[in-house]
Design goal:
- This protein has 23 helices and 20 strands.
- An 8-stranded mixed β-sheet has the order 1-19-20-18-17-14-15-16. Strands 9-8-7-10-11-13-12 form a 7-stranded mixed β-sheet. The chain has a 3-stranded antiparallel β-sheet with strand order 4-6-5.
- It is 28% helix and 15% strand.
- With 661 residues, it is α/β, with parallel strands linked by helices.
- The longest helix has 22 residues.
- Pfam families: Methyltransf_29.
């Protein structure tokens, strides 16, 4: 029967015709390779309202390269940064919190081209069924519940860590057995300062320093901290002429000085701005990396400019410099430029700073500087303030000449070489935005190190693009987000979801005293929605993207936030007692099978300060287990709506006994 006559004989020709049209469109879409993955993605839920509910596969997540947005706008020198108070809505009435800004990250590829060295071999990364939050969101009425105690877990017996570094024990950086086995040539390249995690993970609890007190609150903590909380006076004598830190009765006081800015970081930062007008702090420059940061006074002062700085240094003879920084409430992490890559994505930092950071950039074929090139955004700036820039003796001139040859081979542009009134100099380089320079070289192997080409990371497509100015950058579409409406919708839904949860649940409904919270870690950062929702608060967030999860860290940097890659089967590279709040979203349910939840809870106890919090969103079954372990550590725990666990850490430490495995 012909189709027209068939339709004429039906009672509802219009409905039948519409059905045929829908069927035809569906068949066309399924035949198109760009959408075939979408229709074969059997794990998609029926509602697409929450990004974190969908385990995104690589085939969906890596579409064709994004189109190039407009190029980096020209500098506008006489510009004024918009304050957080001018652009953000008021806080919910339940919370009594001051207002202050926070952080974000960058760039272009979702797939990590150069995975961090801590990434385990593929065979060790075991697939797990991803558990996500509920699909539909509505502001809930918060009700207290009861945790069903697991007797085996709540009765765990713990012991205190022992040894000369017990109070400041960092398992993956204090593994002395592994350090002794390193070859001498590796120690020369700082391999002994890198991560060497013990197996199995230790289950001891770090003791408190004698006389430990609850930390001084921000912003006063930027200027002074309790001596007893970080009782390491060596820097006072070692750096007494450079105004790093001085002791005053029961306090350490931070005058704001540094090796290259003894008169204070504020005047030094002003000198940088005057030397390079294109550097507009708090506008086109939002995320900064400070190498060999000391006590992080440079990054602490940049917070006044709406700049978020990741300060890092190794655990070395500069005793506890990162611990000082975190106790002050300034973002920092233990790391070193040695034999392994830094745990940051490619092409993400707007500016990298080194002030006498003691890194020999020109040595080993320039590998240290090539690592900076990898993480620096195309068009980004490298500010180097060091004696080879301005001293003219034979040794310093030789180093300077080596740096000139190396930076030219990397196609870096020398923007300025300037001297400050204090008698120190700096040089500012800019990374190229086009690969044409690489192609035009007669020899693609840089002159100092033949295999250097393998280490020189490729510029991403559309490298001339730059994120929007801050603060628009936080809510704008990230440059690294794939150009598909579906993924864009998921990203914006994720942002809205965490904005709703933070305002409707976290700030007013869980009994957390947010006025005491400064250092925050999101252990399951995804796209940085949790950190973005807290941007108006006087705190900062370390966003952690797990190595077995989709690589969203470049998107986090694109938004103007900061973060690192990490494997939560291992200890984090921070000192004990350095964070006020740890947040996780279905972390325990999604742990690889090679991890143990007891080890993870012990690590969380190590990181959190006494008086600090953990905020865990999980299934009720997992909350019963995790809550029981926290109770064995004498934490107070509360359950809300059978899905939010809040733990509050006490000063308790065990007197003896060993944990049961």
């Amino acid at each position: 029967m012909a189709i027209p006559s068939y339709l004429h004989g039906k009672r509802y020709p219009f409905i039948f015709s519409l059905s045929l049209l829908i069927l035809a469109v569906t068949l066309v879409l399924m035949s198109n390779s760009q959408y075939s993955t979408f229709f074969s993605f059997s794990s998609l839920p029926t509602s697409f309202t929450r990004l974190r509910q969908i385990p995104i596969t690589s085939s969906l997540y890596f579409p064709p390269e994004p189109q190039s947005p407009p190029p980096l706008p020209p500098p506008i020198i006489a510009d004024v940064a918009i304050s957080a108070a001018d652009r953000l809505p008021p806080l919910p009435p339940q919370s009594k919190i001051q207002e202050t800004p926070i952080v974000l990250p960058p760039e272009d590829q979702l797939l990590r081209d150069d995975p961090p060295s801590l990434r385990p071999p593929p065979a060790e990364i075991q697939e797990t069924a991803i558990i996500r939050p509920p699909t539909d969101w509505a502001a809930p009425l918060m009700t207290r519940g009861e945790i069903e105690i697991d007797e085996n877990l709540v009765n765990l017996k713990w012991k205190v860590c022992e040894g000369p570094v017990a109070v400041d024990y960092i398992p993956c950086l204090d593994n002395f057995k592994a350090m002794k086995k390193l070859k001498k040539n590796l120690k020369k390249h700082m391999a002994h300062r890198e991560r060497h995690c013990p197996t199995p993970s230790p289950r001891c609890l770090v003791p408190l320093p004698r006389g430990y007190k609850l930390p001084i609150l921000w912003p006063k903590s930027r200027e002074m901290i309790w001596y007893d909380n970080v009782p390491h006076p060596k820097l006072v004598d070692y750096k007494k002429d450079q105004n790093w830190v001085v002791r005053s009765d029961d306090y350490f006081v931070f005058p704001g000085g540094g090796t290259q800015f003894r008169e204070g970081a504020a005047s030094y930062i002003k000198f940088i701005e005057e030397a390079v007008p294109a550097v507009r702090l708090g506008r086109n420059i939002r995320v900064v990396l400070d190498v060999g940061c000391g006590v992080a006074s440079f990054g602490g002062n940049l917070m006044d400019r709406d700049v978020l700085t990741m300060s890092f240094a190794p655990k070395d003879e500069h005793e506890a410099q990162i611990q000082f920084a975190l106790e002050r409430g300034i973002p920092a992490i233990l790391s070193v430029i040695g034999t392994q890559q830094l745990t940051f994505p490619n092409n993400v930092y707007d500016l990298i700073h080194c002030a006498r950071c003691r890194v020999p950039w020109h040595e080993d074929g320039g590998k240290p500087l090539l690592e900076l090139n990898r993480v620096l955004r195309p068009g980004g700036f490298f500010v180097w303030s060091a004696t080879p820039v301005y001293l003219n003796d034979e040794r310093h001139v030789s180093i300077w000449n080596s740096m000139v040859a190396l930076t030219q081979s990397m196609c870096w542009k020398l923007l300025t070489k300037a001297m400050a009134p204090a008698g120190v100099g700096l040089v500012v380089y800019q990374k190229p935005t086009s690969p044409s320079c690489y192609k035009e070289r007669k020899n693609n192997d840089p002159p100092m190190y033949t295999p250097l080409q393998r280490c020189l990371s490729q510029l991403p497509p559309g490298a001339s693009r730059w994120p929007p100015l801050w603060p628009e950058r936080l809510s704008a579409k990230p440059l690294g987000l794939p150009p598909t409406l579906f993924v864009e919708e998921l990203f914006h839904n994720d942002t809205k979801y965490w904005s709703d949860v933070v305002s409707d649940v976290y700030l007013g409904g869980l009994g957390i005293n947010w006025t005491n919270v400064r250092n925050v870690m999101d252990m399951t950062a995804s796209h940085g929605g949790f950190a973005a929702a807290l941007e108006h608060m006087p705190l900062w967030v370390m966003n952690v993207v797990q190595i077995q999860e989709p690589d969203t860290l470049p998107i986090i940097f694109d938004r103007g936030l900061i973060g690192v890659y990490h494997d939560w089967c291992e200890s984090f590279s921070t000192y004990p007692r350095t964070y006020d709040l740890l947040h996780s979203n279905f972390l325990f349910s999604n742990l690889p099978k090679r991890c143990d939840i007891i080890d993870l809870v012990a690590e969380m106890d190590r990181i959190v300060r006494p008086g600090g919090y953990v905020l865990v969103q999980e299934s009720k079954e997992m909350i019963n287990k995790v809550g029981s372990i926290f109770r064995s550590l004498q934490w107070s725990v509360s359950l809300y709506n059978d899905q939010y666990l809040v733990g509050h850490k006490s000063l308790w430490r065990p007197e003896g006994g060993e944990v049961q495995r």
